Amino acid sequence: MGMVGGGRGAFIGAVHRIAANIDGQIELVCGAFSSDPGRSKESGADFYLPPNRCYGTFEEMIAAEKALPAGERMDFISIVTPNHVHFPPAKLALENGFHVLSDKPATFDLAEAKELAGLVKKTGLLYGLTHNYTGYPLVKEARDMVHTGKLGKIRKVVVEYPQGWLATRLEASGQKQAGWRTDPKRSGAAGCIGDIGTHAENLAEYITGLKIKELAADLTTFVEGRLLDDDGNVLLRFEGGAKGVLHASQISVGEENNLNIRVYGEKGGLEWHQKEPNTLLVKWLDQPMQVYRTANGYLSKAAAAAGRTPPAHPEGYLEAFANIYRNFAAHIRATLENRQPDPLHLDYPKIEDGVRGMAFIEAVVRSGHNNAAWTPIES
Amino acid sequence: MGMVGGGRGAFIGAVHRIAANIDGQIELVCGAFSSDPGRSKESGADFYLPPNRCYGTFEEMIAAEKALPAGERMDFISIVTPNHVHFPPAKLALENGFHVLSDKPATFDLAEAKELAGLVKKTGLLYGLTHNYTGYPLVKEARDMVHTGKLGKIRKVVVEYPQGWLATRLEASGQKQAGWRTDPKRSGAAGCIGDIGTHAENLAEYITGLKIKELAADLTTFVEGRLLDDDGNVLLRFEGGAKGVLHASQISVGEENNLNIRVYGEKGGLEWHQKEPNTLLVKWLDQPMQVYRTANGYLSKAAAAAGRTPPAHPEGYLEAFANIYRNFAAHIRATLENRQPDPLHLDYPKIEDGVRGMAFIEAVVRSGHNNAAWTPIES
Amino acid sequence: MGMVGGGRGAFIGAVHRIAANIDGQIELVCGAFSSDPGRSKESGADFYLPPNRCYGTFEEMIAAEKALPAGERMDFISIVTPNHVHFPPAKLALENGFHVLSDKPATFDLAEAKELAGLVKKTGLLYGLTHNYTGYPLVKEARDMVHTGKLGKIRKVVVEYPQGWLATRLEASGQKQAGWRTDPKRSGAAGCIGDIGTHAENLAEYITGLKIKELAADLTTFVEGRLLDDDGNVLLRFEGGAKGVLHASQISVGEENNLNIRVYGEKGGLEWHQKEPNTLLVKWLDQPMQVYRTANGYLSKAAAAAGRTPPAHPEGYLEAFANIYRNFAAHIRATLENRQPDPLHLDYPKIEDGVRGMAFIEAVVRSGHNNAAWTPIES
Amino acid sequence: MGMVGGGRGAFIGAVHRIAANIDGQIELVCGAFSSDPGRSKESGADFYLPPNRCYGTFEEMIAAEKALPAGERMDFISIVTPNHVHFPPAKLALENGFHVLSDKPATFDLAEAKELAGLVKKTGLLYGLTHNYTGYPLVKEARDMVHTGKLGKIRKVVVEYPQGWLATRLEASGQKQAGWRTDPKRSGAAGCIGDIGTHAENLAEYITGLKIKELAADLTTFVEGRLLDDDGNVLLRFEGGAKGVLHASQISVGEENNLNIRVYGEKGGLEWHQKEPNTLLVKWLDQPMQVYRTANGYLSKAAAAAGRTPPAHPEGYLEAFANIYRNFAAHIRATLENRQPDPLHLDYPKIEDGVRGMAFIEAVVRSGHNNAAWTPIES
């Protein structure tokens, strides 16, 4: 794996490296960790890379690695830069025969995402997207419950992602994460909705298997001087008649990273909280609620495959993230070995999820500008 | 107190009687418990009432009681009938000099509510409404925190009231509670929104002290053959710029009576769940969350006054309900004794809350019929 | 009902009155609320009693009431005084033909309790004891689960009752509740163990139906100058081979009234917390945990009979307390009407529980003085 | 790192490898994964090791690695075998100049542990022990709170570790983990107490900084035919006067891995649950409870250093485990580089903890055989 971005001081790059390390199946062999070549080399040294494989730009990296012998060069790139630098390295990598694993959102805007989808299709290369919350074992259990019909036809979805870290104008303090996330030039058309609202959308569609047909969004920028939305409340209508609510916020003081989802069908309901991800509440008509926990024998094959520890040894965010890396790597390996991948290994977010996310962002922003008028998602 | 409705087999009548009993300050002296005079007498006997004060109709009761000497006749009526029989006894009681305590919603429609408000004003009599959830000590603490500025200017409110008991067509089974609640002739223009959505609205406005200015509502009837909404998702805009989400449901399988509220200001946030009403979560920027519990010395005067037991002797629904009765009775007593009531005793829902609730219902229904267009609340 | 103790400023007296009021089946007709006759009359006036039925002493009350005609005089006395004044009025009432409902512990020491048991037997009168925690609906459900064999043979019990209110020397401040509870002359041989340890013991034996055979107790007085234990850790051995741990504390800073119990059998386990009494966790081998909640249709007859509200309208401490009053009153009524009581109404703590509690206290104290040597409970 | 044990089918070996991988600071370079040389090579191949560094025995590994040049050979061994094979490889490694990281308990019995302590002292080599629960960030926060005096003098500790996985005679089914853990020849003198009771003991002493002085233990074997204890209830007395309760169980049906601790001082208390390790409850006299959460700015330096992700990205068991590896590796690195280690890196369990754990086990077993007589811990 070659990494784009993620040098010293970055947050998500470290998460990606841990996720890649956990299972001992992926080796970081090179990187363009920073647009400053010296800093890139320094960062690479932290990871025990030789200086000659610490590149100043992703263009340089892709060209140099391509020139290496097949067994030596990187197999895929991992993109961990701010949003506006997702598309360019992804495109270049695909055009030069490298698989791509990218942080979300897939691109800066929907047009880029569609172009990328075309390239993935054309090249036949693999593309993974770290919508990491779908990597949790019990999210997979939730999906399995819906897909096997245990809950009956789905009627209602409530998905929410409140955070509080941007309740003040943190970006004015020079905080790096706040800086680019609130900057339309680097973040894209949406702030809160792009950064975390897409995770909520992705989670809802992943679990239910239903697509959001149209939405009505009330976006707000509460913090004075901020250029992008920091709060959004959205009504959802799904294909097939289910209804829903999605709300996301960066100004909900005291909330950490409180991604939650509730899904109700005709026969049962379920509830999951990212904060305590090893518990899934399952609700029934006229029967006591059940508390599913990771790593127990009663779980589905999909949930079992996503765990690494026995019951009540809690797994967390990094393991969920690692599940995407593990499946992506297993898929690459199957490809390299010319065999059919295990269907369980195909369970990671792909370019279609990326396109969907960008279409969601554009629809929310359009609806928001239009006084929350109903707006279709066009993907 | 004289009771209208609440004979054998009724649910909410029993709750009102317990609420009235708890503090030993209110005596049930008569009732028109059923439109069937025999049944009314039988019910009255259950409560140790003499047959001559068990009436066949509320008209009869009001007339007969009025004819009794001042020290003997009832002081107020308690109305515990289905929605369409809230207004008539309230009106007649006021016109004949009796105070009124009514179950919610105040009336069948907004016009009736406004007429009732006029009567209350004109007669100078007292009118209380059992929006019982505002009777909980920690709801009062929450309100106090907002009003004393601890949370800063309010930005966002999320209030929700999912239930699951009407996920199937229970009304077709002859279940009495389901029957009238899903019948437009007895329930009014809204189903779920009228029955429980109004509680959510009332709670949000009570705690924040902010009025909802306009709303966009997506109403659904999921259960085939049902005539009223059984699910509603609503975007809220408050006076002063706060935003919010309100959702209520009767088809959220496995949910009991899950009224929850979260409020976020510029400096802090709070979260309260009716299911565990003796806990209030208080959230801060950069400080650990605090867990407020009933009956502790650190609570506000308002919260302290609403409790009856020491810490961790949990109080519940009936005590919250009883707080409305207790304050209402104390207010009547002050009136009878010609003195100023203790300001703490004025803290119970009044006709203004009733009008507000009916205006909310009408706005939601109008918005719902209009594809969730923004609709002002006119009260 | 005539009350002994519970005048102005008392805590538990108010709880008893609310518990008696809730269901409208019991009327407070007289009282000896204070050893100061003037204060007794003042207190009685608060409850709308005529002065002539507010007595200066319980002796006076029992004599005067006995002299009244049968339909007029009190049916039973309710004893809400400190521990050293439990036995005398109970004895006198029984000797004069009155039923007795007493706060716990039954008496000051085991000898008194045994004498009282003899009197109850001899007179054939009814005696109830407010070990109120067994009044909760889900405690009854827990008991039903054990008794119907759902959990299999019981192996282990963990019961705990930490409080923190006496972590400092509160009794030195003049606080009334702390005063008598830490005074060996009024409280008895044990402090913490007598006040709350007995509740834990009673709860464990009630739910499991097993008797503690012997125990090893390590008692401590942490607060300097205090005369009685304020913390106790106890190993338990039950008849039939089950083992257990009981710990109680008044110096566990920050704990409110945190009575908890866990019971494990060969097939299943259960867990209940008084702090959130409407939830019962039920655990299984190889199956997800279930969350039982009050007022649902799946509950046992015993649990259902102990509730007053529909699901998720939380009931609390006062309702649990009231269940003892309700059953006791129903038993008296059956006796007055010369009919067999409903077996459900016999479910309230009796003199046998009182004797058992006193024997537990004496065993704990003896073991504690004996460096935690194993000590049998002799009852 | 060279691994002893942990071949295909082992549980804890995989955990150790992930823990070593996570931070990219440790490389697995060789192993004696199985006593079957072929199996050892197969397992090594799973980890991309060359066959010549997959050894058939730890003796062979230590000899062969010692013969390699300094920059090539392993720096330390990681021991992940059943208990009876902890001491021999540890001893041999130390005698041959290799640092040792071992799974717990340190040895098979106390005598071995003391011998090992002597060897560590004599060689000056590093020895780490994976009492992994002390690796959690909030356990470190708890310790910091005690050590900085925030809770005042400690009075009471309640530590518990219930599991339910051995509620039936699982070892009879051939399940490997159950097999050796219930076999006195491989597990040692204690079953439940050795496997998990020691974790509880270690956690209590780590957080409080207090040593258990004496204990009284009631041990039971509930499952017929089992040779070691599967349940234990223990009274604790700490140096300095604090009291405590420790109970551990493998037959508490439905419990997963429910390690919990509560500590109460004169001024405050705290509560931590391994099941939800990112939350620490902090309790105060007369103030609301606070909820500390990982990764927030208000945490101590020690807790902050132990985290890898931002707030509400839950970390779990593997990360806590990895913290021991990370600190141990950093300590080795400092040693290799001849510099003082960062004091934060010294925070991992050492041979003293191992001796202490073995002394605890022996005291518990002795007390258990002696009808729970008070027994000192001799370490």
How would you concisely characterize the structure shown here?
Chain A is of the alpha/beta class and 379 residues long.
By secondary-structure content and strand pairing, the structural class of chain A works out as alpha/beta
- How much of the polypeptide of chain A forms β-strand, as a percent range? 15-25%
Can you tell me the overall shape of chain A? globular
Strand order of the largest sheet of chain A: 13-12-11-10-6-9-8-7-14
Oligomer: homotetramer
Question: How many domains is the backbone of chain A divided into?
Answer: 2
- Most extensive interface, chain pair and sizes: A-B, 42 and 42 residues
**What is the element string of chain A, with H for helices and E for strands?**
EHEHHEHEHEHEHHHEEEEEEEHHHE
* N-to-C CA distance of chain A: 30 Å
* Rounded average pLDDT of chain A: 96
Task: Name the features.
379 residues; alpha/beta; Rossmann fold; Dihydrodipicolinate Reductase, domain 2; 2 domains; nine-stranded mixed β-sheet; five-stranded parallel β-sheet; 12 helices; 35% helix
Walk me through what this model shows.
The first copy, chain A, is α/β, with parallel strands linked by helices and 379 residues long. Chain A folds into two domains: 128 residues, Rossmann fold, CATH 3.40.50.720; 204 residues, 2-Layer Sandwich (Dihydrodipicolinate Reductase, domain 2), CATH 3.30.360.10. Chain A contains twelve helices and 14 strands. Chain A has a nine-stranded mixed sheet with strand order 13-12-11-10-6-9-8-7-14. A five-stranded parallel sheet of chain A has the order 2-1-3-4-5, with helices on both faces. In chain A, α1 crosses α11. The mean pLDDT of chain A is 96. At the A-B interface, β6, β7, β8, β9 and β10 of A face β6, β7, β8, β9 and β10 of B.
